[in-house]
Amino acid sequence: MQNPEVFILAIESSCDDTAAAVLHNDKVLSNVVANQLIHNQYGGVVPELASRAHQQNIVPVIDAALRKANVQKEQLSAIAFTQGPGLMGSLLVGSSFSKSLSLALQIPLIAVNHMHAHILAHFIDEEGYDKPEFPFLALTISGGHTQIVKVNSFFDMEIIGETTDDAVGEAFDKSAKILGLPYPGGPLIDKYAQLGNPKAFVFTKPKVPGLDFSFSGLKTAILYFIQKKKQENPNFIEENLNDICASIQYTIIEILIDKLKLAVQQTGIKQIAIGGGVSANSGIRTRLKENPYGWKTYIPKFEYTTDNAAMIGIVGYQKYLSNTFETASVVSKARIQF
Questions:
Q1: N vs C: which end of the chain shows fewer Cβ within 10 Å?
Q2: Does residue 165 have a known ligand-binding role?
Q3: pTM of the predicted model, to two decimals?
Q4: Interval 42-59: pLDDT, tens
Q5: Does domain 7-124+305-321 have CATH number 3.30.420.40?
């Protein structure tokens, strides 16, 4: 029987978003995110600037999350934080604050794997959203990760396919950079792709055995294609931007879908859940919703796709129920075993 009064304060600081959430059992009471716009001018996240911004943001963000949830810190049952993977300086800000607060309040401390959280975000109690049943296949797609994971239970997960080079989010952002689009470019490719013809230009899909992915060859093919076309017509990008973006996005989605088909064939599991920042992409969401393959697909609420603390909180809640706690000696890890 579930404890009706479990309140989890969750803190996420793995990259450049400072986030805090308060959950009552598996229901989100607040989910606050402070973005760091300073990185846009550098074309990517600058780790030192990210950790400094976390230090500035963490207290106001946690305060806002508690106020919005109408929960006093004395009511909290536990503190959950992102242990890794991520930028070390950013992770340390979140873990240090979490350790201090758990000691001050004398409540348990819970360490969360960021990638587990992207997958288990589907178990947040949200009206209109079904929860997958075990076992299911999770496609985690973000700026740093591209994985197919066989999920047997809350804490029994096995990576059965992953990228051998660039992650899918990198493929989007680097393609955008080739086109002269500002950082972050992935959402802009999605925006322009909705106005273009996805079959205007053909890019060869990389041949990678098994369930693994590779995107570096596709990125190189796009670079050479653009260089060649610009030599023929200096205005090629401007005149064809929507079609170029649509064709790039179509190719990337086809790569993902092909591997999912193979994973379903190999495992016999027809439940597919997506997670991670790139699962916010409208083309991927539309393709999975169309679902001509007989799969049962789970697409998270938009606000739970990008880095957020609600997903950290739902893992924290499950760990709380199983009494999986940490001491203050727990260490943050830029790379963490899945």
A1: N
A2: no
A3: 0.91
A4: 566 666 677 787 688 899
A5: yes
